[in-house]
């Protein structure tokens, strides 16, 4: 069965995109056909895989995730429903396809304010192609607006990146509570936590060590053993539209490999 994983946190700057992109790339490198879905209007995951010119041309000719969710569907052909298969960008990494994002998602909540079943649009769109993939990885914006709600409603699992700082730490409990409530509101939608990842760890400092210790004490085995450090090679790889596994930073490669293996283990993959 296809595993659909949302990478989610209510706080920005915690490494969501890097984890989503590189986990998808790792799955592809292991021979799993994987789909990366960019639901963040900042389009960082998209630009980690393709350059701006390719994105602009593709968005104009084929559409993006914004059209899948219901933004300006009349702009593409005459069909009542957008064909998600035509929007995919194939093989951005080996065995990895991309469903690109768009700035239009910034207003999608207003566009769909009165829409019926607005939380299920992604799930419905993915249904015809879902069986092509072993894993679908959703990069979510730092909020619980309609794009994130669509990701969670479509997902089987979710992953929570956490930066080792006070504000990020105290927000985890709020996030978990809101996710549980959202699933309950969807009449018992089953969504399994596949791990919390300490990411973007900078220089060692007492307050960071205390935050990590408190998270491990409170959430136990839900916190992955692997810690992903803040490294320039991660942003350089994104700038070059490559995964970290094409870099020369063996430490970063090892960290993302270990984190990906831990997630796969929790997914049963």
List keywords for this structure.
269 residues; alpha/beta; Rossmann fold; 44% helix
Structure report:
This protein is α/β, with parallel strands linked by helices. It has one domain (3-267): Rossmann fold. Helix content is 44%, strand content 17%. It has helices spanning 16-29, 44-49, 52-62, 65-69, 84-87, 108-111, 121-126, 146-154, 166-185, 206-219, 232-239, 250-267; strands at residues 3-7, 34-38, 89-93, 96-99, 135-139, 157-162, 192-201, 223-229. It has an eight-stranded mixed beta sheet with strand order 3-4-2-5-1-6-7-8, with helices on both faces. The protein is globular and about 50 Å long. It starts with a strand and ends with a helix. The model is unreliable at 73-80 (pLDDT under 50).
In a nutshell, what does this entry contain?
By secondary structure, this protein is an alpha/beta fold. It has one domain (about 5-265): Rossmann fold, CATH 3.40.50.300. Helices cover about 45% and strands about 15% of the residues.
Q: How does the overall form come out from the CA principal axes?
A: globular
Strand numbers in spatial order across the main sheet: 3-4-2-5-1-6-7-8
What is the CATH C level class, in words?
Answer: Alpha Beta
What is the radius of gyration? 18 Å
Low-confidence stretches: 73-80
Structural class: alpha/beta
Helix content: 40-55%
CATH overall fold name: Rossmann fold
Main sheet properties: 8 strands, mixed
Order of helices and strands: EHEHHHHEEHHEHEHEHEHH
The CATH superfamily name is: P-loop containing nucleotide triphosphate hydrolases
- Tell me the count of domains: 1
By CATH, the architecture is named 3-Layer(aba) Sandwich
The number of helical runs is: 12
Strand portion, in percent? 15-25%
Mean pLDDT: 92
- How widely separated are the two ends? 10 Å
Strands, total number? 8
